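Quick check before the chapter quiz. The format below is the same one you will see on the exam, so make sure you can read both the input and the output lines.
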Amino acid sequence: MTSPPDTFMPSRPARFGYPVRVPRSRGRAPWAIASFIAIPLFFCSLMGSTLAQEKPHVVQWKGCLHGICTSWHEPSGANEAAIWLWAMVPPLVLCLIGYLCTRIRFGWYVACVAGIVEAVAVTRRLDMWTAHHTKRYPWGVDLIPGTNPSSNQWDPGEWEKLARSAALSLSHWTIGVAVVAIVGMAAVEVRRRYFGRRPLPLGDDEVLEGVHAPSATGAGIPSE
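Here is the expected output.
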């Protein structure tokens, strides 16, 4: 009876002389499913990051009848860069978790559960971000007051409601993909373990005889 193969790589000397055993890779499937789940998670995170961080460039000066004049302009380049950078953090973390899960047992399920947790965490404060974004854009995201109906396209709070709905929908899609992946892998494991083909049990003195088709070449002709 042979022992199961070792799932650890050979020991390597560490910095202080202690051997370190690194688990062998069990396949890239957890990394692949984590990268796939990270696609809708990125767009969900992008909508949440926009609601949380986007703010117009405000310019104020003295000289108006009411004391201080205020004008709103498009967000600065630094603000846009911060939005995109923060939006990339959750999917990159999920991809890293998926890579680490390639070396542990049940890594597929751990990667999927991590995607579900991140999708919930990204939208946890969505209502607060929506309210703050609406206050930062008192004229709407088009920065045009409602007194100019010919040019006004977005009323205050209108775009924020759409962005919130889109973020929640993407979060639900992320969770749905992860749940389907978990159920699919579980079904494959159950089918392989309980409904797969098994070898016939044979005793020590039993021999399985093969069945051969009759020869079609006929008897040989003896040579003289």
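If your answer matched, good. The radius of gyration is 31 Å.
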